[in-house]
Amino acid sequence: MKEVRHILGISGGKDSAALAIYMKKNYPELKIEFYNADTGCELSDTMTLLDRLSSFLGGIKKLKASAVEDSLEEIPFVHFLKAQGGFLPSPNARWCTKKMKLEPFEEYVGGDYAISYVGIRGDEDRDGYISSRPNIQAVFPFRKNIWSLDVINLVLGNGSIKKMVDIVRELSGDFITKDEFIEILEQPLTKSFFYSKKLNALLDLDIRLFNHAVFDFLKTTDYPVGKLDSFPLLDNTDVLVKADIFKLLEDNGVGVPAYYNEIPFEVDGQTGTYCRSRSGCYFCFYQQKIEWVWLYEQHPDLFAKAMEFEKDGYTWNQGETLAELIRPERIRQIKLDVIRRQKENAKMGKGSSLVDILTGDDVLCTNCFI
Fold it and tell me: Which residues contact 120 (CB under 8 A, 6 or more apart)?
């Protein structure tokens, strides 16, 4: 039987960095391979965090797509942009993710069985990366449910009820909720009792029992986790949220990337703050308008480079060029909108930082599987 590899991709953002620290400290018995996929277009703050994290972890492997190894272009993104005929990536055409993140990762894994540890937090409502390769399985240690959507659909499907019930009955250990657990398992999925409702009912009853049952189920499949004799995350009941992530980074000397630091600005006599809410390329098309303004005002050289990529009608933002976005009146409108949203959050007792009001933190462009 092939050995199962444990792999953790680090984007340079807070969540994947914190996950690397968390796994290194809590599961030292796992021989985890840490890597970063290089785009050549990261902020200097990102590179600083990667350097600090590399020292803590004992090294981070740098990956580049094999297509750029003999390229005349030093920057991977520029190589692929030219191959795309100047067509900029977008939410509907994320070729940058595919070419600079997914393909190097899957080349690195090859045909080996691999478990990919992904840093989606417990307070995020998204599913995350599921590989199209059957030999790669994603696991999410920060969430209440550590399993990927495809695994949940398999083990909780109506066709698996009998098998799961039999597995639970045979499980050894101090699981005092078995009978109640089985009652929930035996309920078939319906329009009113759907996957997420059944999943949450089981997790609320006993996370450890659910994980052990899923593990034994996976042993009957070709999933990589099922190839293991044991898996320490089965007894993990931690659920980590944003505050926990920042604390992990600070407490372990790695620190939070400087681009998360809120910078005050003033417009029309009102004060707001801005920063960057995500890791990744400085021109990431997932950036909100205010993040583009932040880049323009804090890193004008990088903003100018991003403008140079806008050619032949291809723009980073749909319906608006970067030149249009930085007109004084447009910047004023964008900042006033942020101030309004920050005030609304404050009134509701919610966080009012830019990271708090923006959605998609460490979003799929850089963290599709990291």
Answer: 15, 126, 128, 140, 142, 143, 367
